[in-house]
Hints:
Chain A is an alpha/beta fold. Chain A is built from 19 helices and 16 strands. A 6-stranded parallel beta sheet of chain A has the order 2-3-1-4-5-6, sandwiched between helices. In chain A, β2 (167-169), α7 and β3 (193-198) form a beta-alpha-beta unit. The two termini of chain A are 19 Å apart. Chain B contains 12 helices and 17 strands.
Amino acid sequence: MKYYWTRYVAIYPTALLYMLQDTEYRLDRYIAWYFRTRDFRHVMKRRTLELTKKVRLLRIGIWSLWLLANSAVAVCIYMSVVTQSYTWGVVALGIIALLPFILAFGVIIPLIIGRLVIQLPRERAIIEEGRAILAKHTGTRIAVAGSYGKTTAKEILLTILHEGVRVAATPGNMNTAIGISRFARKLKGDEEVLIVELGEEQVGDVKQLASLTRPTMGVITGVNEAHLVSFKSLEQTAATIFELADYLGKDATTYKNGENKIVASRAKADDNYVYSEKGVNGWKVSHLTTTLEGTQFIATKGAKIVKARTKLIGRHVVGVTVAAIAIADSLGLTAHQIEAGLAKIRPFEHRMEPRKLHGAWIVDDTYNGNSDGVIAGLKLLKESQATRRIYVTPGLVEQGDKTKEVHELIGRLAARSADMIVLMKNSVTDYIVAGLQHEKFAGELRIIDEPLEFYTNIEHFVAAGDVVLMQNDWTDNYV
Amino acid sequence: MKETIAVFFGGRSTEHDISIITAISSVIRPLELTKKYTIVPVYITKTGKWVSDTKLTDVATYRGSKIDDIVAKAKPLLVSFDGGLTINKKRIDVAFPAMHGSYGEDGSLMGLLRMAGVPFVGSDMDASVVAMDKVLAKQVAQANNIPTSAFYAFSKKQFSDDSTSVVKTITRALQYPLFVKPAHLGSSIGITKVVSDDQLYNAIEVAAYYDNKIIVEEAVNNLIEVTVPIIGNDVLTPALVERPLAKEDGVFDFDTKYINGGKKGGAKQAGAQGYSQLPAELPEGLYEKALSTAEAVYRAVGASGISRVDLLIDSKTNKVYFNEMNPLPGDLYRHNWRAAGVSSTDLVVKLVEYAKERFNEDQKNQTTFESSFLKQF
């Protein structure tokens, strides 16, 4: 109640619109955020409200509500004076007290109506259209599923295959039914290969998307605590992701990340499609070197030799890269074409993306949001040649009942890998600190309130010889 | 409990504007980012008015007329020396002069802070006076067996009284090409390279426009010019030996240092950073020799905290000459410190610690003693 008054400050309506936008109009997340927030003056930390058409309309709506409520208060006061009755005064006070809730929940009513009346029917039509297009399409379909690493796997495959076949892939994080259907509507129809990323947030999602896209080949990149809040257990997550393998059937080609314990435990001992940095399906990796400049290795299968040179960093990318080599080979690409494709692969934006700054290496892994990515990043940091290793993180979101365990592990691993650790203050900070204390971390620990301050002023914090790993980022609705 | 640091900048100096950038970008912002200090900015206008306002830490304030409004509306600064320094009722733990040139870097401000009894960053008053006087600094170096190029110094009055005699003395003692400089200015302001008597007259007039004391130096042959930033009190830490890449005329002037390197010059980095070789690629043994000479100058002048020592090298004879000393390098030369592995935040924290260390050492000295002198009156 201490901060209840902050719901009456001028920024409050804008803060509500901002959080609606920040949660991508997901009402469950918006409502959860609303009840979690105490001080409404400082919710816009990472960006400002983007004035889209939708936001402009909602802004008119929210201020209309405000005007209506205040007019009602004025009428009540007038009636109270005219009738000399306290009742009207009490009603006026009630409206004033409830005004923040009237605005917060009144503003979502048009969204709910719009979703039911316009958005859902339109989406259903697009999905049906996409389903029909994909059903007719003659190209080989490769589906990529997993708690993490989907976009990386998809982009590696796309870049390599582009050297030998006509290929298209779902752009960005477009991995829902509506996203995939929109992608389908843009296809020319003459593509030889389609690469489709399958997203998952609840049980049955992958099965539904697999039936929509009808893949003939699959890649399972890993299973971890991502979206554990909705899945409730890792078993449920694994079962959902393996809906892809179930769809493809026993004899289909489904590449599986053997470096992920859960995926490895679900694969049979004689499964040739389990990939790791050692190789896959007869392809063997040798002469592996990985630095902040990139990764190199030689992949051989019988007489076939592929000399891989990519700008991707970290040992964890070797397995999926060799899987992509194996897939490209199976689709008829030559070693020369595969090598040319590998050479064109660049680090993906905000995913283990290295850059030089004043002689220091900055590794931007802020789009990473999973524990396996954290482990891979910290391993890279530990193995990097550096005068000082700096680790920057707010921690991970949506770790469900594993939150404490995961963040204590991050703290322990970070203590062994970094000389300086910068934490963004939030609900998981104490768990990471506990992990650091467990390892008796003797380096410098900074806990900062302003999440963007370190990122935007990084030039002041670094010097030549430093390696800085910036992992994860929380949108404001998670803080 | 955060320490309070007063950052002094601006001032009645030709390097007023450079001081603003040094203060805001290289001192105040890094200090703020450490979260260890509360900053009290103290801006001194070109006319000498002292102002303190939180808006003074934003560089945008100085681009238009906003600064004039702030200065016009500012209340007079309340400063008290009460066994320490208090500004606008805020007790100052450490003072951070971020001033260049006269009435700041030249020992004036240091004298004031010394009187106030507050620790301050950088060299003390005496070392600042010596370092900022090119003639005195060379004389101190020579007295400590540190080579300098041949030079001749004289006053503006000497020149205005009898310019022919002054020029005759110079040309008898020194050989062209010569460098004519105001004795107290930094940032290469008023410096001219000359190769004839006519040019010499004009160059002296230019230098005399800025300063009462003028120095004329003989050029070093086969020249390699380098600079060495150093921090520390007793234990010195040098950054990298840096080689500024001068224009064809051999003058690393104000524009090259602060302007051409940016937009005009099209260099990747603004200012000196765009025109430097870092670390300097020098013939074998000269890198170490430059470092040791710079450290010797630092100690001879009695510098502390931070300084930058400029050296001239004859690449044929491998002889290293002391040229100039800069007690508060513009921008703190943080590009060099970063390249040497010291971040901007670490640099300012170190400088604050050096200030406290020197102050604490000074406090151990006895400055008064009991006497019966007054009893006789």
